[in-house]
Amino acid sequence: MNKINGTIMQYFEWYLNCEQNLWNKARRDAEKLSELGITALWLPPAFKGIGGKDEVGYGVYDLYDLGEFDQKGTIKTKYGSKDEYIECIKALKQVGIETYADIVLNHKMGADMLQTIPATKVDWGDHYKEVSGQEIVRVATKFTFPGRKRKYSDFEWNWTHFHGIDYDDKSGEHAIFKFKDKKWDDAVDGEFGNFDYLMGADIDFGNPEVIEELDKWAKWYLEETGVDGFRLDAIKHINAGFYRDFIKKITEKIKPDLFSVGEYWSGDISKLHRYIEETEGQISLFDVPLHYNFYYASLDDNYDLSKILDHTLMKENPAKAVTFVDNHDTQPGQSLQSFINNWFKLPAYSIILLRNEGYPCVFYGDMYGIPHDNVLATEKLSLLLKLRKEKAYGNQTDYLDNLNYIGWTREGDEEHSDSGLAVVISNAGDGEKRMYIGKKFAGKSFVDILGNCEDEIFIDDEGFGNFRVRGKSVSVWILK
């Protein structure tokens, strides 16, 4: 799939108060989003979760209930009904916007019945280390989905389909209990000795019945909804071999052009490279190291801007990089809180939107604000989106060569009239950079479309201009 100059939007934030109506809102927004240059929407998990109408989507209960059955105290999910979801996907398609479904396969929650089984406790800090002998526990592992009455699938989950859980109903104890004859998957992140276990009833991806059921479900989901791709949740906790085979089967038998992006949450670029290798390059990844570079740059005026792209996927494997500034996990109050400081939001977005590497993803909370935490929308973000759509084309020349002032130019192309731009970012005082933008612009004048610098500048006969920037800001210069 050609993602050049495409832009994803993550169409939700954690505290979104959407009154079970998000799918309808997205449908109404479709045309406006397309005009801004959004080419794909990452929609939140659409299946029924343990929290019913208040479930953000990651406490997954029934993968087949997309807001169709009376389960967990509601028919609709937090975001709407199954019919509304499908209508929303169709409406987005009509204006050229793809949809990526958020897929949560790591665990299940909200079981219908308890089971009494033997298990062994393991250490919170080292999941390989057993801290008890085998004991009998009563655990929430039997999923029969009575509200669905076997429609779409008659598969019922029981304890043999899971590795472990973190609560014993019999003793009321919170601990990680590994079930009898089970061992954690190997090809997972090495934090805590082995990071297979994350939460809930942890799915056993070595169980052939599980694999067969999830393969069937994926076929059903893609055919039922018409989504174009998957955002894969929590992949560092799931055997890499499972996702390698899962995506391969889908692209060979069901949807050859499926786009998939995985959330491997680590700032360590070597782990991301390894995962891409283990999954044979089939899955793009969110560029978490780039997010952390933005975060640290936003906290520290002494951050060396010339190193902003170092050790990132954007720099080292741009074809597999889905770049982002913030998301629902990094926003205030969330588990991975590392929210980029306001003054650096626009510079960070200019990096992901106005350069030629990576496939950028814009966050709902930055676009529209986060009322829950009095976070305002990022001013002029929609302007940067339009610049990406209309101007950010052609050869790129980098000037990432200074501690406090960096920039780059795009020379534009024949296809997009008056395209081309120059970007300068400062994390100190006012400054300027002499940069080459192309001889075809000789004698022409450029203006800062963001309005931070008022006067215009002229391009000399050699195709260079002295592009200015105000202190702690970004300027984007375009043809007047």
Walk me through the structure.
This protein has 480 residues and is α/β, with parallel strands linked by helices. The protein folds into three domains: 8-106 and 208-390, Glycosidases (TIM Barrel); 108-203, Beta Barrel (Elongation Factor Tu (Ef-tu), domain 3); 396-479, Sandwich (Immunoglobulin-like), CATH 2.60.40.1180. The protein has ten helices and 24 strands. The strands form five sheets. It has an eight-stranded parallel barrel. A six-stranded antiparallel beta sheet has the order 6-11-9-10-7-8, with no helix packed on it. Strands 17-18-19-24-21-22 form a six-stranded antiparallel beta sheet. Strand 12 (229-232), helix 4 (240-253) and strand 13 (259-262) form a beta-alpha-beta unit. Helix 1 (22-36) packs parallel to helix 2 and helix 3 packs across helix 4 (240-253). It is elongated, with a radius of gyration of 24 Å. The mean pLDDT is 97.
